[in-house]
């Protein structure tokens, strides 16, 4: 590439977050109109508008992220990711057993659990945004996971308080130290009190349990990009549902407790000028 082409590539990359924000803003009028047509005015609060707005926007954004990242997330949940690269054979076991699916939203990745269902699968989708529940429930049904996928309408701190109705009608709670796998896909950027909540999640994993991760994080490859990312982040959380660009999520994960195996890095193909870099891989307790 020529110097001019390189310069144009960098500029387009730096413009990307502003384009993304613009698209998100375009969904606000429609979300407000929908609420006014479907709910009593006295029920429409700022938080209700925010949740409906994000849900409407994420119906578009999440679907596009699924298209762009489908193969790599399929590989991740199949245990076929090493040093942020997709490999042919599993380097850790695929997702199985009891799974905490954190922040699944409307369920764009739910069908991947069906591909790894060996008969003992039980997935708990921890999603406090009730606006997303109809889509999540629909996609779980379409994936054939009606009796496998349970929606937990709470935040991370309240997981253990929720009673889950089992197939036989009995109720149970999710105990700490009882979970085989945790899955977080582009959700830790938006949780409150990230260090505290990530540590809380760690406690649910069994010894030998695995955490499958694809998250965007604070940039650390270029000093100037740190300032640029911080500037974008002045606006980003207010428009993208509380999502924070500058979280050092990898540090929070590593400090949550001791890990037997760490395979969590930034994909090498991501450039120094990426405003929204990622970490990708697994942690084994």
Automatic annotation (TrEMBL):
It comes from the Eukaryota. Pfam families: Methyltransf_11. Keywords: Methyltransferase, Transferase. GO terms for biological process: methylation. One of its GO terms (molecular function) is S-adenosylmethionine-dependent methyltransferase activity. Residues 100-212 form the Methyltransferase type domain. The keyword Transferase applies. This is Methyltransferase domain-containing protein. It comes from Paraphaeosphaeria minitans.
């Amino acid at each position: 590439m020529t110097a001019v082409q390189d310069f144009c590539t960098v500029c387009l990359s730096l413009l990307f977050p502003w384009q993304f924000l613009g698209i998100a803003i375009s969904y606000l009028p429609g979300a407000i109109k929908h609420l006014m047509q479907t709910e009593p005015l006295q029920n429409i609060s700022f938080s209700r508008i925010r949740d409906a707005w994000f849900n409407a926007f994420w119906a578009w954004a999440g679907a596009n992220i699924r298209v762009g990242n489908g193969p790599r997330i399929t590989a991740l949940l199949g245990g076929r990711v090493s040093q942020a690269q997709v490999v042919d054979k599993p380097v850790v076991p695929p997702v199985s057993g009891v799974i905490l699916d954190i922040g699944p939203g409307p369920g764009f990745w739910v069908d991947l659990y069906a591909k790894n269902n060996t008969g003992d699968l039980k997935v708990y989708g921890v999603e406090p945004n009730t606006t997303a529940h109809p889509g999540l429930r629909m996609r779980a049904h379409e994936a054939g996971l009606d009796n496998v996928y349970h929606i937990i309408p709470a935040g991370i701190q309240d997981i253990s308080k929720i009673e889950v109705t089992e197939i036989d009608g009995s109720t149970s709670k999710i105990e700490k130290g009882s979970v085989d796998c945790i899955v977080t896909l582009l959700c830790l950027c938006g949780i409150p009190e990230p260090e505290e909540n990530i540590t809380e999640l760690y406690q649910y994993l069994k010894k030998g349990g695995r955490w499958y991760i694809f998250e965007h994080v604070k940039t650390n490859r270029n000093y100037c990009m740190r300032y640029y990312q911080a500037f974008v982040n002045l606006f980003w959380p207010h428009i993208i549902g509380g999502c924070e660009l500058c979280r050092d999520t990898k540090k929070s994960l590593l400090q949550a407790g001791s890990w037997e195996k760490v395979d969590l890095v930034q994909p090498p193909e991501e450039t120094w000028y990426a405003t929204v870099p990622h970490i990708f891989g697994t942690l084994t307790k």
